Amino acid sequence: MVLGLALQGALFAQANAAQPVPPGNRHAEQPEVPGASVRRTRAGKTSFDDKYEKVRELLATDSALVGKIKKTAAAYGIAPIHMVGAIVGEHTYNVDAYDSLQSYYVKAASYAGNSFRFAYKDEGISDFVARPEFAECAALSDSYRLWTCRENVWEAQFRGKTIGGKSYPNNRFSAVFFQPFYAGQTFGLGQINPLTALMLSDLVSQKSGYKTLDADDAAGVYKAIMDPDISLAFMAAVIRKSIDDYKTIADIDISTNPGVTATLFNIGGSQQRARTLASRRASGAANWPEENYYGWLINDRLDELEQLL
To answer: In 3D, which of 233, 235, 228, 234 has the Cα closest to residue 108?
Structure first.
């Protein structure tokens, strides 16, 4: 009887388990790389192949970094190859890798004494989100839900509009309020943007013990995304959140495909993308998440990247 109940339980769990994404790429050839990435790479007088080899060499020769990746991945319940894929993708297509992990620490330290704030023109972020349009978000205490709500309000009520005689750019919330130095900026080993860090602050605090971030302490946010040790925690949190979103919303297990998690690390929006996929599958379409150019590279080089671990 006990054996029968155990078997029934196992069959029930199997029947209700999220479907794993098939391994490898859905596209036979790599999707087109965006022009901005091409131009950035040409401006640096380098190539994607050279940048890939540089970051791969960093991982191959820095056992301390790989050890930290493994430890962080374990804390968030993900396979370390997902973090390797995100690091390789970022440094192949978005930035050039430094020669050593120590260089990332030095770069992070260079920002430590800076005084700046998150604002648009003369309006600080705290004053902005205190506007009545954001009242619906006030009761949310979880950092992810809170900042997601605020981002949604920005998209619906402020982006590209004129409110009270003040015009707001037709641009992302993170680009308008959270980039005090220059547009499109992400920094550090994990290339995390400040708004993403604020969203995932509670999860990182819970899993890694780092203090929660405060939007009024812009320097503290930048320390978190630039310090390699803390940045790795935020990388893992982004990946963990994407995996959880696809499992709970679309009943799909993307933890089996590093190219998919790398794609989501690159483009973001895992909740909305999971909802879109769930809607397509509910209509009878046998769709799987598809990798972009960034994730395609990770799956294409997966055997080589797994050897780094």
So the answer is: 228
Q: Mean pLDDT, to the nearest integer, of 240-265?
A: 96
What percent of the chain stands above pLDDT 90?
Answer: 64
CB 259 within 8 A of CB 265: no
Q: Bridge-partner residues for 253, per DSSP?
A: 20
Residue 299: predicted pLDDT: 96
Condensed to tens digits (0 to 9), the pLDDT of residues 94-110 reads 877 776 666 776 776 76
Contact assessment for residue 178 and residue 118, using Cβ atoms and an 8 Å cutoff: yes
Q: Encode pLDDT of 67-77 as tens digits.
A: 999 999 999 99
Nearest alpha carbon to residue 86 among 108, 55, 112? 55
pTM higher than 0.85: yes
Query: Do residues 21 and 242 lie in contact, with contact meaning Cβ atoms separated by under 8 Å?
Result: no
Q: Are 32 and 293 in contact (CB under 8 A)?
A: yes
Q: What is the DSSP string of the chain?
A: -HHHHHHHHHHHHHHHSPEEPPSS-SSSSPPPPPHHHHHHHHHTT--HHHHHHHHHHHHHH-HHHHHHHHHHHHHTT--HHHHHHHHHHHHHHTSPPPSSHHHHHHHHHHTTT-----EETTEEHHHHHTSGGGGGGTT--SHHHHHHHHHHHIIIIITT-EETTEE--SS-HHHHHS-SSSTT--BTTTTB-HHHHHHTHHHHHHHH-PPPP-TT-HHHHHHHHHSHHHHHHHHHHHHHHHHHHHHHHH-EEGGG-HHHHHHHHHH--HHHHHHHHHHHHHTT--------HHHHHHHHTHHHHHTT-
pLDDT for the residue numbered 182: 53
In whole angstroms, what is the distance from residue 195 CA to residue 175 CA? 9
Q: Residue 102 is encoded by which pair of tokens? A: 């120590």
Q: Which two tokens stand for residue 31?
A: 């999707």
